[in-house]
């Protein structure tokens, strides 16, 4: 393990990150594919009468959709600023009445919530990557607060996806990056999944997952009927082609349909920028 967990560093990072987190899933056509696939998996688990926890909700991109679907949503995050933005965005959408609670806390310890509280628990967009050695504890907690028969949905940044992402960057010095594997901790990430704090990377340390590893953590937490895939899938790291496809409605619909068909294939899970998964607490 390159680095141990530092909750205060994560809190500070996301407090300073501010509104950038809100635009993350709507910036480019590529980001919209990613958002679409995350929603596709979530859709059937939200709606009237459902009590939903959005854990590591960030600026509330998914919280708003959960509220719009008619569910009662609880927002949970370590960053006061992200919670403030999420609350503001939900208010602007006229959905404040759908907020049950707003809780600032750490995913390692969901002590504000009783066992078996939520119909659906969502932890999307990589909060679990920051948990490092506490990842099992966090997924255990997410499972504890889910009702029996309820669904847990997770997405994490993938180890192979993050490397593939470098290859998909525009105007990037690929040779300088792959030519300095020690400096960029490339071998460390490939072997352990851990990326320590780096002078050129503006992030707290993270652990990048393989699909098998995420599945193992979910199984250990008592989650069953696990389905696991990759998002974006066929277009993973292909930001420029996504940009071009978006200008033609038929081409765009075709790629979206193909993505929907492919993204939850088990064999695609390690291909995505995100590994996305769901399962049931029986
Ligand atoms: C990339 S954002 C994802 C936000 C949102 N779920 C989405 O998909 O748009 C990651 C969020 O996880 C939160 N987070 C990271 N570590 C956390 C922890 N230990 N406990 C609670 N929240 C955490 C951060 O503050 C940040 O808002």
TrEMBL record:
Keywords of the record: Methyltransferase, Transferase
GO biological process, one term: methylation
Keyword Nucleotidyltransferase carried by entry: no
Keyword Transferase tagged: yes
Domain of life: Bacteria
Coiled-coil parts of chain: none
Domain Methyltransferase: 52-150
Pfam family, one: Methyltransf_25
Gene3D superfamilies: Vaccinia Virus protein VP39
Signal sequence annotation: none
Gene Ontology molecular function terms on file: methyltransferase activity
PANTHER family from the UniProt entry: METHYLTRANSFERASE, RHODANESE DOMAIN-CONTAINING PROTEIN
UniProt-recorded name of the protein: Class I SAM-dependent methyltransferase
Organism field: Oceanirhabdus seepicola
């Amino acid at each position: 393990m390159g680095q141990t967990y530092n909750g205060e560093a994560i809190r500070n990072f996301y407090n300073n990150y501010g509104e950038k987190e809100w635009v993350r899933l709507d910036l480019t056509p590529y980001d919209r594919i990613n958002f679409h696939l995350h929603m596709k998996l979530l859709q059937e688990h939200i709606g009237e009468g459902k009590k939903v926890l959005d854990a590591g909700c960030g600026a509330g991109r998914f919280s708003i959709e959960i509220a719009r679907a008619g569910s009662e949503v609880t927002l949970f995050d370590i960053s006061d600023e992200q919670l403030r933005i999420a609350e503001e965005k939900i208010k602007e959408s006229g959905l404040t009445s759908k907020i049950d609670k707003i809780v600032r806390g750490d995913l390692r310890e969901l002590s504000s919530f009783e066992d078996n509280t939520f119909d659906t628990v969502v932890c999307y967009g990589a909060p679990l990557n920051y948990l490092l050695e506490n990842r099992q504890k966090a997924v255990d907690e997410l499972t504890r607060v889910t009702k029996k028969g309820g669904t847990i949905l997770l997405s994490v940044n993938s180890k192979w996806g993050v490397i593939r992402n470098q290859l998909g960057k525009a105007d990037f010095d690929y040779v300088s990056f792959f030519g300095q594997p020690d400096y960029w901790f490339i071998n460390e990430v490939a072997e352990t999944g851990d990326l320590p704090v780096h002078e050129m990377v503006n992030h707290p340390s993270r652990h990048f997952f393989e699909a098998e590893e995420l599945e193992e953590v979910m199984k250990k937490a008592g989650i069953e009927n696990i389905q696991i895939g990759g998002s974006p899938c066929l277009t993973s790291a292909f930001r420029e082609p996504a940009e071009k496809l978006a200008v033609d409605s038929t081409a765009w619909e075709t790629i979206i349909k193909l993505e929907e068909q492919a993204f939850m294939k088990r064999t695609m899970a390690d291909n995505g920028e995100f590994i996305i998964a769901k399962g049931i607490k029986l």
